[in-house]
Each structure stands twice: as structure tokens, then as C-alpha cells.
Design a protein that fits this description.
The protein is mainly alpha-helical. The protein has one domain. Helix content is 76%, strand content 0%. The radius of gyration is 25 Å and the shape is globular. The N and C termini lie far apart (51 Å).
Length: 239
């Protein structure tokens, strides 16, 4: 794989932006909001998925700079893309008018809109070289499911739930169950789409393939020239 410094810098920049947004919001809450809890802050799926995203972008940027893309990194990128898609769409449909501890406008935009969009773009621009089977992509759903269990177990203990649709005190466990199933189905769909999108890599010129083709072209031309020379020599010998 050929090193892609432009892609690496793109990833580094948005990894830094995501990190800055998460850190800046935490410091703001701890210094300016009475009763703010770091435990609650890091219990938002938005924060956890953004952490996964900027760590993934940083690692992927490093490998792009070196010109490498190991299989485990492609799977990690797929997981981060699915999680950020869940974050962006869930926020847009269910939470845009609800306080989710991101009161600073630019932080809210970065965490709920910018990074989710960037992750999808990064995925499509640099598709995995080897297709990801749908059944393999289902492993990505483990984290959202564990997050759901964590939120429902932690909620009664601390008397706090990260999102209204996960709070049984508001509308009961029936509503929580329905919303959880709907989000799980959406997450499943995102994972399947991400896996199927890797089929597009057959129609997208890969840097490694381009380099191989370019390297082979001179050799082919050289063989052609030699082959063309041989009849000339034979003709001269015949004359």
C-alpha cells in the first residue's frame, strides 16, 4: 500500500478536533456546572463513540502515513463508523431538542454532526482492501449492546440515565424495550450497509493496484520493444 500523507493529515486533524471537543466539554462541565459528574459524562454513548472515533482516526492516520492498513484496523474503522452513524442519526431524530450535556455550540456540532460525517467519508474514501463479510460486521454490535446493559444496570444505582428513552422512570420499561429494539435494528442495518459497501472496493482503483500497474507497464513496453526488434534482426540476417 502506498503512503497517503494527505489522508493521514485529514485523519490527524479530525482526531485532534474530536479529542479537543470531548476534553473541552468535560472541563467546562466540571468547572461551571454544579453537581456535574465525570462518571455521567463518560456514560453518554455520544462521548464513548467519539472517543473510539478519534482514537481510531489517530491510529488510522499513523498507518496511512506509513502506507499500511492491517486487517484489524479496517475492522476497527468499520466499528467506529457504525457507532458514529448511530450517534449522529439518533441525535438528529431523538435528541436534538434535549439536554445531553453538550451545551457549548461548537462542541455539540463537532460531536453530533462533524465527526459522524467525517467517519462515513473516511470509510468510503479508503474502503478496506478485502471485503468484510456481513457476519463479521455483526461483531460491531457488541459494544452498543453492552452499552445498553451498562446504562440500564447503572441507572438505578446512581439514579441517572443518559437519555430519556433509556429512563424507565419516565415511561416504563415497555418504552425502553421498544426504543432499544428500534435502535438495535438500526445499528444492525448500519453494520450490514458498512459491510456490503466493502464490495465497492472492486470498482475503486486502489493505490497498491495502481502502483503495481504502473510498475508493470514499463516492463511490458520493454518486452514489446525487444519482441519488435527480433524480427528486424532476423530480417537483417536473412538479407
Amino acid at each position: 500500500m502506498t503512503a497517503n500523507r494527505g489522508l493521514a493529515l485529514f485523519r490527524f486533524w479530525f482526531a485532534l478536533l474530536g479529542f479537543a471537543a470531548v476534553l473541552f466539554q468535560l472541563l467546562h462541565l466540571m468547572q461551571n456546572v454544579p453537581g456535574a459528574s465525570a462518571g455521567n459524562y463518560f456514560s453518554y454513548f455520544t462521548i464513548e463513540s467519539n472517543i473510539i472515533a478519534f482514537v481510531t482516526l489517530g491510529i488510522a492516520g499513523w498507518f496511512a502515513w506509513k502506507g499500511a492498513s492491517p486487517r484489524w484496523l479496517e475492522l476497527l474503522r468499520g466499528a467506529a463508523t457504525v457507532y458514529m452513524t448511530i450517534t449522529g442519526i439518533t441525535y438528529s431524530l431523538l435528541l436534538s431538542d434535549i439536554d445531553v450535556n453538550t451545551p457549548i455550540p461548537w462542541v455539540n456540532v463537532v460531536l453530533h454532526y462533524t465527526v459522524p460525517t467525517v467517519m462515513v467519508i473516511d470509510w468510503l474514501v479508503d474502503l478496506p482492501r478485502v471485503r468484510i463479510p456481513v457476519r463479521t460486521s455483526l461483531v460491531w454490535l457488541a459494544f452498543p449492546l453492552l452499552y445498553l446493559v451498562y446504562s440500564l444496570v447503572r441507572g438505578p444505582i446512581v439514579g441517572w440515565y443518559p437519555y430519556p428513552f433509556l429512563d424507565p422512570r419516565t415511561a416504563g420499561y415497555g418504552t425502553v424495550a421498544v426504543m432499544s429494539v428500534l435502535i438495535a435494528v438500526a445499528a444492525f442495518a448500519f453494520a450490514v450497509v458498512a459491510a456490503l459497501s466493502t464490495k465497492l472496493q472492486d470498482s475503486v482503483p486502489h493505490p497498491a493496484r495502481i502502483s503495481s500497474a504502473e510498475a508493470a507497464e514499463p516492463r511490458t513496453s520493454a518486452r514489446g520493444r525487444h519482441a519488435g526488434d527480433e524480427p528486424g534482426l532476423e530480417g537483417q540476417q536473412g538479407r
